[in-house]
Amino acid sequence: MDEQEHRRKVEAVFRKHDADNSGTIDGSELVTALRALNALPDGSPEAQRKFVDDLLARVEPDDDDASSLTLSEFQKLFDLGRVRAAFHAVDTDGSGNATAAEVAAMLRRLGVPGASLADAKKFIARVDTSGDGTIDLVEFERAFEFVPLASLQAVAARWAALGALPECGGGDLGSATVPVPGLRTWQTVMAGGIGGVASKSVVAPLERVRLAQQTGKAEGLGLFGLMRSIVAAEGWRGLWAGNGTACIRVFPTGAITCTSYVNLLQLTPADDEIDAMEPVYRGGAAAAAALIGQVSTYPIEVVRARVTVSGAPVMKVVREVAAEGGFKSFYGGLAPTLAAVVPFVAVQNASIDLGRHSTGHGAGGAPSYVHLWLVGAFAGCSAQTFTYPLDVLRRRLQVGALADEVARGGWVSAARGVVRREGFGSLFAGIGATYLKSVPSVATIATVCVSMNQYFAQKNKTEHEAKVMRGDHLNV
C-alpha cells in the first residue's frame, strides 16, 4: 500500500469526524471515528472510553491534558509502519507471505492454547483476498490499517473479533502477553550462567564430600566425619576446593542450557495452560537443552573432576588427559553423564515451570520461592534416585578408575564389575550428600534464573512500551 494513499485516507476520516471543524478530534469524536472504523473494542461505554483515553495518553505521553488529537497525531495513531512491523512478526521466515504454520505459531505466542493449523486457516481466510491460503503484506495492510497503535497483540485481537476463531480453547487475545519483550540471548546467558554458579557455590562442600565418596577416597568416614577430616587437613576453604574450576564449567553449561531451553521451548506448542502434554513439551525442550549444554562443555568437567581429586595444576591435568587417548579422552564417561544429567535437567526444569504455572505464577507473575523450594526438592530427589548410579559410574570413568574395564567392554561392563566387586549399594555411594545438596541446589537455580529472567523480561517490556510511545517502529 502506498504511504501517501494511506495518509490521505486517514486525513479523510479525520476531517469527517472533526464535527466542529476545530482542527482537532476530542475524546467523544474519537469514539465516533473508531466506531465507524470498527476499531472500538466491544464492552461497556466506560470500558470503551477508558480505551480511548489510553490511546490519547499514549499518543501524547508528555501532555498533562491529553484530551484531543491534531491531524498529525491522528495520523500517528494509524501509522502504517506499526502494521508492517506486526506483519513481519507473523512472517517469521521473511518470505513475504504469512502461512498457516506461521499464523498458528503467532497465536500460540499470544496465549491461545492449542491453536492448530485449522484455526490458523480460519484466521487467514478472513483477510486472504487472493484466495491463495496465505497473507501478503498488501492484504495485511488493507485488513489492519485502521487498528490504532497497531501492535501484534492489537492486530490479533482485531483478527479474532472478525469471528475467525470461535472455538480456539478459550484464549483471550485481548489480554494476551505480547511477545515483544522476550528474552535476548545475552540475558538468558547471564541468567543461566549466574544461576549455575550460585547453585554450585552454595553446595560446593557437599559436592566435595560426594566426589570423595564416589571415587572411593572416603576411607569409611561418614558425611560429617569426612567434612571434619577435610577441614582439619585443609581448613574451611578445603570444602570449596575445585569450586573455581567447577564454576568455570558451570557458567557456560548453565548459560547454554538456559538459552537453549528458552529458544527450544518456543518451537513447541507449550503455553501457560496445564494439560497432559505440557510436561512433555517442557521436559523435551529441557532434555534437548541439557544435551546441548553438556556436550558443549564436557571436557571442562573431565578436567575439573581430576583437578579436584588430585590437586594438580589445570594445565598438567589437561596434558595428562590428552596423553591418555587424545581428544576422545576428554569425553570419557560422556554416555553415562548424558544418561544421568539429561533426564535430571528435564524433570527439574519442567517441574519448576509447571510448579509456577500450577499456582498461577506464569511467565509474568511473581513465583512463590517457598513453592519453588518444595517443587525443586521433590523433583531433584526423585531424579537423583533414578539417575544416581550412572552419576557414580561417570565420576569413576572421569578420574580413570575404570579405564581398563571400559576399554575392554564399555561402561555397561564396567558398571557390572563395580556391582560384582563392591555390591549394588556402591552405586549409591554418597547419595545422602546428594539428597542434602539437591534442595538448596535446585532452589538456588530456580530463584536466580527465574528472578533474572523475569527482571529482564519486564525491563524489555518497559523499554518497548517507551519506544512505542515515542513512535519507534520495532518488529513486535
TrEMBL record:
Which terms does the record give in the GO molecular function aspect?
Answer: calcium ion binding
Q: Which PROSITE patterns match?
A: EF_HAND_1, EF_HAND_2, SOLCAR
Keywords on this record? Calcium, Membrane, Repeat, Transmembrane, Transmembrane helix, Transport
Q: Does the keyword Hydrolase apply?
A: no
Which part of the chain is the EF-hand domain? 5-40, 78-113, 115-150
User: Which parts of the chain are Solcar repeats?
Assistant: 183-267, 277-358, 367-455
Family in the record: Belongs to the mitochondrial carrier (TC 2.A.29) family.
Protein name (record) = EF-hand domain-containing protein
Q: Give the originating organism.
A: Pelagomonas calceolata
Starting at the broadest rank, the lineage of the source organism is: Eukaryota, Sar, Stramenopiles, Ochrophyta, Pelagophyceae
